[in-house]
Amino acid sequence: MNFKQVFSKEKVTTVIRYDLPSGLLVFFVALPLCVGIPFFSGAPVVSGVIAGIVGGVVVSLISNSKLSVSGPAAGLIIIVSSAVNELGSYEAFLTALVIAGVMQIVMGVLKFGFVGSFFPGSVIKGMLAAIGIILFLKQIPHLLGYDIDHEGDFNFFQWDNQNTFSEIVEALRHTTPGAIMISLFSLSILYIWEKKKLSSKLYIHGAIIVVALAVMLNNLFNYFFPVLYINEEHLVSVLPAQGINSILNEMPLPDYAYLYNSKTYLIAFEIAVIASLESMLSLDAIEKIDPLRRHASKNRELIAQGVGNMICGAIGGMPITSVIVRSSANLNAGAKTQMSSFFHGIFLIIALLFIPDIINDIPMAALASILTLTGYKLARMDIFIGMYKKGWEHFLPFAITILAIVFSNLLIGVSIGMVAGMFFIIRRNILNPFKYEKKPSEFGTTVKIELAEEVSFLNKASIQYNLNKIPEHTHVIIDGSRSRYIDPDVMECIEDFKINAPFKNIKVEILNTEGKSKSFKNTEQYSEEKVHHTEHEHW
Q1: Mean per-residue pLDDT for 90-107?
Q2: Are residues 420 and 441 in the same domain?
Q3: 509 - beta bridge partners?
């Protein structure tokens, strides 16, 4: 691609009109998370900001996902804290993170991204809805001005000995009037902005207006209504108001002496696997809610995440993954290309180095309002209705995933949802190993059972049950035309039925099952068989 194509007028316009403001909004969402997550992990605060910068500036340039935003993830909090305790220092953990990054790059080169295709759609949608519900519930205390629990704690059981619901009850007892007013004001602005579609008319997202007006409103409280003024306890207050030299001195660096410790490699493998799975989940999820249905290479995403984690480990950052909260905020803000993620990383650099005082003045209530809207969009009622209409086999894994995530954490919840989803998939395959047709005929009633392409021993019980309930005076046709393999136990069950059929006055025809109990046949044999028994297809 030549220079003119890359910097065409249309692309530059798209970047300025959509991606730049989207990146600014994602920056506002990501900033408290970049500090809250290391807080819960026991890592230095600056490590979370470093991870956010690398996730934005580096990963976005390698990945070809248009909407995915990377940074420190809440799902890795337990992994990081336990790894630091096991290795003895954060510097030792950074060495494991460098190795984990290399492992992810290797996984991408070996094309392990296909693993992401095995997540059932009902589980992905359940994960999105659960994150929406958690976002909504976790913001209620911040909307009320009770900011004991930091942003980024998405676990049900919290570090302050509360849980998601008890924290809301506690917040109702310790409200802050000024924060409530800013919350109501911010939610009103966001509602009007969405309702009137002002983002497309004025070319600026409502969330950016909310942040700016919330800072101004709090300053007005300070001058005219001091009783409503929100103090430092309820402001973002996440960036150290220090010079660049102080920040650089606080940056931890890896202790490469731990390259000779076997524990380092075990922890690196754990980080690589879990971070990769979370990234694949997030990528799948954001692509499912993208109106344009854009798809990115999962193998390339693994390489991008690996490079990001390798750099994070080398310069003192936390592990990064693709993060669905930021990615969803990016989509809702109207991002068009991965430049929005890049810009959010640039804004993190600017905030860290040049304007920490201004950022620290943002009321938490304003950011909570933005995240509340993001949560609402992820867990709209029509999503639940749509999943319910698809039937119980889709709705139950969806609901189980939601409950599991809300009452535990993301990784445990998705694992439980995967088990539920796989159970229904296996159940469907076991109970439906054939097509069953019944219609009147000269013999009385004719039943045609057309076996599936693969009939395993797991299908025996279902086939046996359906054969046993066939009534007397029935003509039964068991057709293996579509089958490439029929388990010997199933064939034995069919032969037993044929032997006993005359005693019930049942006529049995078994078609095209010869030799299919021995092994899978090659494609040419299978094609020849299909031609050979075409005459049986229109019985």
Answers
A1: 96
A2: no
A3: 477
Structural domain contains residue 388: no
Task: Please indicate, yes or no, if residue 391 is contained in any of the structural domains.
Answer: no
Give a yes or no: residue 225 inside a domain: yes
| Structural contact between residues 321 and 73, judged by C-beta atoms closer than 8 angstroms | yes
DSSP 71: E
Closest residue by Cα to residue 428 from 401, 390, 400: 390
Could you give the number of structural domains in the chain?
3
Q: Which residue did the predictor score with more confidence, 2 or 75?
A: 75
- Average pLDDT over the chain reads 84
Examine the domain organization and report whether 440 and 368 are in the same domain.
no
Do 342 and 449 belong together in one domain?
no
- If asked whether residues 55 and 182 sit together in one domain, one would say yes
Residue 184 has pLDDT above 70, yes or no: yes
In the chain, the percentage of residues whose pLDDT exceeds 90 is 39
Highest mean pLDDT among 65-79, 311-325, 426-440, 444-458: 311-325
Note whether 256 and 345 are same-domain residues: yes
Q: How far does CA 89 lie from the centroid of its chain?
A: 30
- For 485, the 3-state DSSP assignment is strand
Q: What is the CATH number of the domain that holds 440?
A: 3.30.750.24
150 and 93 fall within a common domain: yes
218-235 as b/e, with b when 16 or more CB fall inside 10 Å? beebeeeeeebebeeebb
Inter-residue contact 517 to 491 (CB < 8 Å): yes
Q: What is the dihedral sign for C-alpha 152, 154, 155, 158?
A: positive
Domain membership of residue 55 as a residue range: 8-382
List of residues 6+ apart from 57 with CB closer than 8 A: 342, 345, 346, 349
Based on the fold, state whether residues 410 and 437 are members of the same structural domain: no
3-state helix, strand, coil in the chain (%, to 5): 70, 10, 25
For the ranges 50-64, 128-142, 232-246, 358-372, the lowest mean pLDDT is seen at 232-246
Does some domain include residue 145? yes
- The phi, psi pair for 70, rounded to 5°, reads -105, 155
- 516 and 403 belong to one structural domain: no
Most confident among 11-15, 239-243, 428-432 (mean pLDDT): 11-15
Q: Give CA–CA dist 256/233, Å, rounded.
A: 39
